[in-house]
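dude i think i finally got it to work??
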Amino acid sequence: MREKEYGIWQALSWADLTWLVERLACGLAQAGLRRGEHMVVIGANRPRLYATMLAAQSIGAIPIPLYQDAAAPECVFPVNNADVRFAFAEDQEQVDKLMEIREQCPQLSNIYFDDPRGLRNYDEPGLTSVDDLLAAGKAFAALHDGFFQAQVNLIKPDDVAAMFFTSGTTGNPKGVVHTHNSLLNRAKAGADFDKLTSTEEVLAYLPPAWIGQNIFSYAQWLACGYVVNCPESAATVTIDLKEVGPTYYFAPPRVFEGLLTSVMIRMEDAGAIKRRMFQYFMSVAQRVGPASLDGKAIGFGNSIVYAVGNLLVYGPLRNNLGMSRVRVAYTAGEAIGPDLFSFYRSIGINLKQLYGSTETAVFVCLQPDNEARADTVGVPCAGVEIKVAANGEILVKSPGLLKCYFKNPEATAEVLSADGWYHTSDAGFIDAHGHLKIIDRVKDVGRIKGGANDGAMFAPKYVENKLKFFPHIKEVVAYGDGRERVCVMINIDFDAVGNWAERRNLPYAGYTDLAQKAEVYQLIKECVEKVNADLSVDTLLAGSQVSRFLVLHKELDADDGELTRTNKVRRGFIAEKYDVLIDALYGGKTSQFIETQVKFEDGRSGSVSATLRIDDAKTFAPVKAAA
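look at this
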């Protein structure tokens, strides 16, 4: 592993890691952590966090990674549900959270911190530094020779290895129980699929509590032995990405959206000649780039022009994104917009999609090289069986399935059938090429009711993703099931739209003021109508065109309950919270006043109010396919 600290990359060898894990394991055992017991780890990607997880697993305990940006009350349920007594906290911020909930979690007795800054004067029972834990472990190991190896030898493949709490979009989160075999089996299947070796370089920058990050930088790291690089902080990730130059890269669509937005902002600030050159070569890339990456013939002339574009635009752009060495890049977590997907492949980045979930240990379907398409998520990988239920739901059988939901047999029975099929809750089908195509969540796929599009299919996530490709749009929430038309609420991307406004000498006093500018509404309206034009040629989804929209006065935030910790929209919660806005959209109003309670980063509460404008968007007659 490597960790960047004070601007310098510090290396940790496998031998160093072994020493660290053994001392931590012995220290935890001496402190009373028992086989089968749970231990919370909360913090960013750090060698000592990973070593603590390994140490707990080495003595048969079960680590539970929690989101480091979660508010203290969000930690109460996991800690109490899993009867957690032991916790690893990265720094003062995480220690303060655990101290805050101690009254509600009286069993939480031992808290170990890694970074001592700000904790010098803390005098709390059970609060100990990891350095002290290592010293205690070293002394214990000296007195109990062979203890560590004996504990490791007791572990069986079907023993519980870790537990991950789901995002809890509809109530309390559920603890997903995974075994050593389910995690390592899927990690190995994914590694074999893309021929990963110990020479790969990975940047671990997403929350360890997210199963995707945990698989890519923990389970696959152990299966392949490649190098995991931990950035200095969230603020330095883009710089660290360029320094590391990963060969194997994983990110949810929102990260790829953010990178593209930053590119477009910089191009707006570039000179006229550079802008024209960028636009010309990007049009070439979009036309022939994906085919070139797939190894298809593009013609001599196109090859020459693309090669020049690679020298002048694509190569420098990949380097600026930190992806000049990427051999395989994956996106998952939610569907990615087809235009966004095509952009990265067109400039020579081997971006592919995969399909999976926390319950399946991520790897269900993967896209083979030269078969990456925006509208599918790939073919079933080794050991996976897929079938489609009568209602269109995808069912999966795999060695990577969850053992159960912790203390929740009813929920387990809902998703795991007696004969071993997992109900994904996703709607989709297998296409003629054997690739899986996901439409949306089963519960979210609906129908337009009444009006000219009566009975037409409505897939909100598909509409949202098409709008989010535009660099000026950050988040979208679409409604339309059981209604005559589709309406959306939009978050602008403050950086992108702010830059756009400044270049046009458009003054604004903050997000709320900028979001309601008439010029900004016209900008967003153009984006909406472009999407409507695209939808009009889609046989299935032509009825999902957006009729009305508004721009929200605040950014949707996980701290306000509007997003999950993995930044997925909580559509039902938002519908209740902003019911007055939805009524206004469907009631034909041209404006609506709203006041919203918000939580600030320092824990204080406040409110944001505004009169929101509501606009109509042009829709297009469905284009009939040629006979």
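The radius of gyration is 25 Å.
im so relieved honestly
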